[in-house]
Amino acid sequence: REAESFKEQGNAYYAKKDYNEAYNYYTKAIDACPNNASYYGNRAATLMMLGKFREALGDAQQSVRLDDTFVRGHLREGKCHLSLGNAMAAARCFQRVLELDRTNPQAQQELTNANTLLEYERIAEIDFEKRDFRKVVFCMDRALEFAPGCHRFKILKAECLALLGRYPEAQSVASDILRLDSTNADALYVRGLCLYYEDCIEKAVQFFVQALRMAPDHEKACLACRNAKALKAKKEDGNKAFKEGNYKLAYELYTEALGIDPNNIKTNAKLYCNRGTVNSKLRKLEDAIEDCTNAIKLDDTYIKAYLRRAQCYMDTEQYEDAVRDYEKVYQTEKTKEHKQFLKNAQVELKKSKRKDYYKILGVDKNASEDEIKKAYRKRALMHHPDRHSGASAEIQKEEEKKFKEVGEAFTILSDPKKKARYDSGQDLEEDGMNMGDFDANNIFKAFFGGPGNFSFEASGPGNFFFQFG
């Protein structure tokens, strides 16, 4: 009678959804009468409402041990198994209910749910092997609707989120499990995996080691720990070789590090960028550009890789590409330094689209006034129209064009003011100089000086000398 009184009070609290008090009174009923199946069944139902499916399972199993014909006991055991992700055990319980009550609608529905859960598990296993992690996450989300207490499904989902680069979501799932069970090796592994993929390798190793303490045979944690330690060592050795100026060794070490784990996107992006820096030091600029491009493919927010590639583009006179990279950098981080980089690249791009007067004269950008004069003398004589008067019309036209360009180049580079404006990328038209009205002959006469007519005469086959009359 005392046990029944406790049960009645438990039922009242259960009806009011005060499951903690209901649990207390059902426990008192069990203590007073430990061989009553319904008391265990009621307490199992209360624990299920509290989300404590593992404890509820123990009570449900005890209820059917005491009474194998207790339908609600079998239903609750099956529901606990299902909630914990054990679909096969759940199916056996629901089949037992149908043996006792062939038309039980709840058992029929739950049996369908158990089979659906098994199918989601099967698909997820296949997709994980295919590395279709998005589909695995989808399957686990559906599975967790039937099995909200299954840590195994949550861990698989978290692992796939980590492999998809969705680290905050993955960490949140793993942390929730660790709050309930701090010794869960799978959750420790996933926490370590997130840190590992976020390039926090030292912290990641700590979690992998902890996971292996809990489960020494944990294959994934063992492999990840080995990769993390190898990556850390190779990267540090590469950095040391670079600092010591041993670029060839640094290149080899970074290359070896890149072969350790292709899935570690963030670390590999840094390794590619580091190797790009090595290549730029070795003046292998196209290789450096390729490495930086690979780094950006892995992490399109990696500012350092954009800056390194942009500098290589500048060094190889690919100014349009350099401007594009510096624009991307400046849009992301609007600093004075980045603004200046962009401005410099834009100036060089503008300069590259004009005639290269240094190239036309065949002199270096640091050529002296004397060198510029000598170069003009040589090129003007080489391309003077009189020298090619006997050539075809096409050649005469081409040489006349070159003669004019040589005159333009000399006019600009021999005038300090104009040369300064040209070197800085400014418009020469602002100086009042219109190259369309330019007369190369006047420059030629002024340079060579003397009255009379200048002419070329042949002194032998292919030889010319000039004179002033």
UniProtKB/TrEMBL annotation:
The keyword Calcium does not apply. PROSITE patterns: DNAJ_2, TPR, TPR_REGION. SUPFAM superfamilies: Chaperone J-domain, TPR-like. CDD domains: DnaJ. One of its GO terms (cellular component) is cytosol. Keywords: Acetylation, Chaperone, Cytoplasm, Cytoskeleton, Nucleus, Phosphoprotein, Repeat, TPR repeat. It comes from the Eukaryota. SMART domains: DnaJ (SM00271), TPR (SM00028). GO terms for biological process: protein folding. Residues 356-426 form the J domain. InterPro entries: DnaJ_domain, J_dom_sf, TPR-like_helical_dom_sf, TPR_rpt. One of its GO terms (molecular function) is heat shock protein binding. Pfam families: DnaJ, TPR_1, TPR_11, TPR_16, TPR_8. Acts as a co-chaperone regulating the molecular chaperones HSP70 and HSP90 in folding of steroid receptors, such as the glucocorticoid receptor and the progesterone receptor. Proposed to act as a recycling chaperone by facilitating the return of chaperone substrates to early stages of chaperoning if further folding is required. In vitro, induces ATP-independent dissociation of HSP90 but not of HSP70 from the chaperone-substrate complexes. Recruits NR1I3 to the cytoplasm. This is DnaJ homolog subfamily C member 7. It comes from Pelodiscus sinensis.
